[in-house]
Amino acid sequence: MIKVVKFGGSSLADASQFKKVADIVKAEKERKYVVPSAPGKRFKEDTKVTDMLYECYSLASTGKSFDELFTKIRERYQQIIDELSLDVSLDEEFAKIRSAFVSKAGRDYAASRGEYLNGILLAAYLGFPFIDAAEVIFFKNDGSFDSEYTNDVLSKKLKEYEYAVIPGFYGSMPNDTIKTFSRGGSDITGSIVSRAAMADLYENWTDVSGFLMADPRIVDSPMTIDTITYRELRELSYMGAGVLHEDAIFPVRLCGIPINIRNTNDPSARGTFIVAEAPTDRENTHNITGIAGKKGFCIISIEKDMMNQELGFGRRVLKVLEDNGISFEHLPSGIDTMCVVVNQLAIDGLEKKIIDELSRAVAPDKIEITRDVALIAVVGRGMKSRKGTAAKILTAVAESDVNIRMIDQGSSELNVILGIQQEDFEKALNAIYKKFVK
Q: What is the average pLDDT score of the chain?
């Protein structure tokens, strides 16, 4: 059996966390390939190393002095080395990084050094070989991830080692420059390594004991989800649920590799399993898997009699948005009405232009834009097989005295999405959770 284990920044923030990680890795011989993040916050007011590197590079690239901040970054790593009594020196590495900062090697290069250096230290502490991600993870000239070439090279490299550490978050471009994934990209690296290693399980270790049914900053002590499907996770992650980078699903989904979200600070907890398929689980009295939401949307509402009989109506509406570089999030519609939900930032300053162009394109009877909208997604694989779920959701919102501006149910009946005003977001989310979880 092969397990790939990825550890987040909080799991590797300092020497004491390194010790926890080592205990976890060594507890099972099946944990063969380790993907580390850069050191995260050691305490609430602390700064993540990645953020320090971004700031340091910004100073260097603009010709300002960065010595003080650069020294603080070095001290973070040296403290780990000293407290773990590692026979490792990063002097040469920091000399290269300093020179690269002065030469303006790029923000991606700067940010990637957090994972790179942490990978070197963790490999030394575990006694594992170190594989630089730049040598095995590749991007195309257009900046997109080259999945098949990466899988070919990485799988061959991993066969050379029974155990190894591969830092997360970055790879290389065809011209050998460093390219990073988006923030949280170490999750993606872990998934890529899992696919290449043909792993039986991808363990993603973080600072929570699994995926929660709702945001604990909004809902008090939400329950942990025992099992969730890739599709459910994708829906919840898109709507703002944290823990796992949403793009991390695809490499393992391709091979049907399950993901297990675990807590570095509570390794005995089972965590959450993310799988390709799962039973509806009629014993689950909650009826839903999770609830998530995001603020910052607006709704473009269009009304026109006999809209449904007008050939190409929807295409012309979307063409206006496309011409203005705006993508849509949701598209609920009726016989004579059509709503387009878009990111509010994308439309800021363009409202009048959009209304004018839509008026010319489709000659609506009425058109208006509602700003400051929040979306809430209620997700569950068992929703389509149980009666009354949607009614229960709407009742919960109505009883909390919140007005619903939009309702959208996906064709797979996996989720119900509500649009409400932002000021009602927390109240509505709490009401739905309490309605389903007693």
A: 92
